[in-house]
């Protein structure tokens, strides 16, 4: 197995591309039904979703993958095609946004609780980093422009992804982080929960 962080199998590239397109389509979909055919800005929303949501999702999964390989584990992203199909159907039928694209599968004889916790934490932290990056970029732009709205959307999506993934229940990242170190989980998760849910 190739443990280099730059090695991608053809199956992994395929799964990342399909998941990215599916997630962008779900976020860009204008509510339940097939109103995209009468929506003149759907294509623009889809392109923006590819750039923002897609990059946020890929960065999250590659963070897991890279840290796992750092700890000597072979890791690859695998899409959950059934979950992506269910998510798209839910969006079309009832307008509900549910994202379950897949996961990074880790292959190693043994991972310590600390290694597992750090691998899990790396995904949400990557989204926090991207949110900060988008926020910093927005400082240098005039408000209420198209680019500033895109950057605000990037901040929102990344903080939401970080908060959602830190829920302390399996199979979310938060469960593994909490099992490893409750203090670190609280320091990272509780401010995000406050921002997202209150």
TrEMBL record:
GO terms under cellular component: plasma membrane
Listed InterPro entries: Metallopeptidase_M50B, Peptidase_M50, Rip2-like
Keyword S-adenosyl-L-methionine: no
Cofactor(s) the protein requires to work: Zn(2+)
Domain Peptidase M50: 147-179
Keyword Protease: yes
A single MF term (Gene Ontology): metal ion binding
Listed Pfam families: Peptidase_M50
Topological type in the membrane: Multi-pass membrane protein
Cellular localisation: Cell membrane
Keywords on record: Cell membrane, Hydrolase, Membrane, Metal-binding, Metalloprotease, Protease, Transmembrane, Transmembrane helix, Zinc
Family membership: Belongs to the peptidase M50B family.
Protein name: Peptidase M50 domain-containing protein
Organism encoding this protein: Methanofervidicoccus abyssi
Lineage: Archaea, Methanobacteriati, Methanobacteriota, Methanomada group, Methanococci
